[in-house]
Amino acid sequence: MPQRPECIVFRGHLLRTSGSQYTSWSSEDALFVARQRLSSHAPASTVSIIYRYLPSRFFIYRLDFFADTRLSNMSQRFLFPRWTNKFLALLGVLILAGGAYASVLFLGVTSPETLNTGYRPLQPVPFSHALHAGELKMDCKYCHVSVDKSAHSQIPATQTCINCHSPKTAAGAPKLSAIHSESPKLKPVRESWRTGESVDWVRIHRLPDYVYFNHSAHVNRGVSCVTCHGRVDQMDIVYQAKNQSMAWCLDCHRNPDPHLRPVEEVTNLAWSAGSEEKQLALGAELRKANNINPQTNCAVCHR
Known about the structure:
Helix content is 32%, strand content 13%. The protein is flat and about 95 Å long.
């Protein structure tokens, strides 16, 4: 049995006996000296450490270093120099900084306000809402026919476009209306009519799949298109004007009065009550008359 040199640990500090006084050692020094003392007993063995609790008023522990001959040549393993310990703190700082940067990047860049507001893709047909809804005063429901009947506001079918922009037939005359029947801008519409394939419109307003929104429930209670989509009648190229985040929706559900109007004025995007005071008074009246009590619990939108 090899000799077991002892080191004393007092309150977490390694100590050794020097006469009647205790002298502090670092853990690296203690382990190094223990190995040196054991080298004459087991030069090719590893040094194992056993902590033994010795109950006393000073909470003193004893470390026994002994040779474990069951393991071979482990005492010869490479140890990094002490100065490399400084890099541990630097590594910790880099990990924290990287985590903070990733959090800001994920929460900031992917938020609805950052990602979607102002999104304005080019469409295969340069349809101008400013011309059709603004100048020509076409009602929104002429193209979006299901907005007051279903949860979704459908994209107009090619047939709707052909009602006004009918291509020429084999006889050389348009079958329906002859407005810009040969315009190159309307070529995708004519191709869609000829082939039966839909025009590849690009969707602009897109809620996450886990969000349920019902257009008809809002439109039939006096919430105008302008509340969620802005003044589309002034847009040559439609873009997302509102961030449509959950907080934005909840603000309206908690206080719907500023957004309510007579149902017959829902698609009149230029309509105004006249002043903020009149709008709030009208909104409160319509909310009471139509029994409008928006809910704010999670199950309303997350079904």
